[in-house]
Specification:
- The chain is α/β, with parallel strands linked by helices and 438 residues long.
- The chain has a domain of 237 residues: Response regulator (Rossmann fold), CATH 3.40.50.2300.
- The strands form three sheets. An eight-stranded mixed β-sheet has the order 2-1-3-4-5-15-14-13, with helices on both faces. Strands 7-6-8-9-10-16-17 form a seven-stranded mixed β-sheet, covered by helices on one side. The chain has a two-stranded antiparallel sheet with strand order 11-12.
- Helix 3 runs parallel beside helix 10 and helix 6 crosses helix 7.
- The two termini are 36 Å apart.
Length: 438
């Protein structure tokens, strides 16, 4: 309790609200006695369902993530309904493909609200889709829960109807691991990043962290989205650097293979974000070059990286084995470092509905829902939050959690560092609670 209060002070969230934040902290914690499969709780067909809309990247560049995000969402909803639903009501998940397209994303939000009249929306992963969808959700007055990592929510680029409680954003992630990079790998750094919002978040956060810890970003190498060959960018990598920091999405196998050929054996230390190889087997041809390099992981792909009863339960329900792969098809590797955000976000919705007394999509109920969520400051580790405990900043609408540094050893990711929540914290003047809801 003392640590929780101290962290709350660091994040300037104020004192606990006994009825909301206090209950929210307890709600996310389930003891080992309930880790077995629950007995089914009766949900009658007479109960009106709570409808949760879901933007899914089924097609487009985000499809590898979309497959696993939808898999997790369906598993979570099935589990929630087995244990009694939300406030005794069944949950109905209504999913639509946003094609990883900003234009389509806004259209999906409109359909979910105007056609399906959903109560809440689980939003997108890719930043450009979130940036087009969040404003439309605000116009239509529906709570929109991004499962991204971008700064669009905490930095005030959206509106009071938009939240990101299920995963730490990129600045928080980078802030948490930057000190370890500079202390263990070196202080002269070059960064390769995709030339759009997600990559810019990495660039800006790493630059700010370097200034704080006396390191230096020697070179910035942006790569336009949609590239299928990367070799022409690699001559920009300075030879005198200590660390090459890389994050890439898209044709990542080609990126890593070409980078390996270009650098050869005489390479600097390398630190990447798992996004570059998320949902890709480390045994894929060309990835042997990554042996001995480091990665950020949001939730370790391999169970032995963070083996807890809650992690085991989550993997069992979702159908993921100890290596982070599909139990029914071990060749299909999950997007394990990101997809937990969908699971945890659905349980945040459950917690807030049950504590606020939300019933219908109307002004009164939404005002109660939003204010209760904004008053929360903590989610305890448990079945509902298997990645770990998190601090929630009600002003920024953003959670902050633990991060992992892993090293590739013998073709596996081995965790070498788990950060503390306070390592992720940063200050920002945004305050959504000052904005009107209506």
């Amino acid at each position: 309790m003392n640590r929780r209060k101290a962290l709350s002070g660091l994040l300037k969230t104020g004192v606990l609200v006994a009825g909301a934040a206090g209950a929210g902290a307890v709600a996310g914690y389930l003891t080992g006695s309930v880790l077995s499969r629950p007995t089914e709780v009766g949900l009658t067909g007479e109960s009106k369902p709570i409808k949760i809309g879901f933007q899914v990247h089924r097609t487009g560049i985000g499809a590898p993530y979309g497959f696993w995000y939808e898999r997790v969402a369906n598993a979570a909803v099935e589990y929630i309904n087995r244990i009694g639903g939300i406030a005794g009501r069944p949950v109905q998940l209504i999913a639509e493909d946003d094609e990883t397209s900003p234009a389509r994303g806004a259209q999906v939000v409109e359909r979910l609200v105007l056609v399906h009249n959903v109560d809440f929306i689980i939003g997108a992963l890719f930043s450009d889709v979130v940036l087009s969808s969040g404003p439309r959700a605000g116009e239509l007055k529906r709570p929109y829960f991004a499962v991204s990592e971008g700064t669009h929510v905490p930095f005030g680029l959206l509106n009071r109807w938009c939240f990101q409680p299920g995963i730490t954003d990129v600045p928080g992630q980078v802030t948490a691991i930057a000190k370890w990079i500079f202390e263990n790998l070196g202080k002269r750094v070059a960064i390769i990043f995709p030339d759009y919002a997600f990559g810019h978040d990495h660039r800006d956060a790493l630059t700010k962290a370097a200034e704080r810890y006396g390191a230096r970003i020697v070179e910035q190498i942006p790569i336009p989205p949609g590239e299928t060959s990367f070799t022409k960018y690699f001559p920009k990598i300075p030879r005198e650097i200590d660390v090459l920091y890389h994050v890439m999405v898209g044709d990542v196998l080609t990126f890593v293979r070409e980078l390996g050929v270009f650098l050869g054996r005489n390479r600097p230390e390398m630190f990447g974000f798992i996004d570059s190889i998320e949902a890709i087997p480390l045994t894929a041809p060309g990835l042997e070059f990554l042996e001995g390099t480091y990665f950020w992981e949001g939730f370790p792909r391999y169970l032995d990286g963070y083996d807890t009863p809650y992690n085991r339960f989550y993997r069992d329900v979702v159908g993921v084995d100890e290596n982070g792969a599909d139990r029914s098809d071990p060749s299909r590797v999950s997007a394990f470092s990101h997809m937990f955000s969908v699971w945890e976000t659905l349980f945040v919705i459950k917690e807030v509905v049950e504590q606020s007394g939300y019933s219908e999509p109307n002004r009164r109920d939404y005002e109660l829902f939003v204010k209760v969520l904004e008053s929360m400051d903590w989610f305890n580790e448990g079945i509902w939050h298997p990645q770990g405990d998190k601090m929630f900043n009600g002003k920024l609408h953003q959670s902050f959690g633990h991060q992992f540094v892993s090293k590739v050893r013998n073709g596996r990711l081995v965790v070498v560092k788990r950060t503390e929540i306070e390592d992720s914290l940063y200050e920002h003047p945004n305050d959504y609670t000052a904005q009107p809801l209506y």
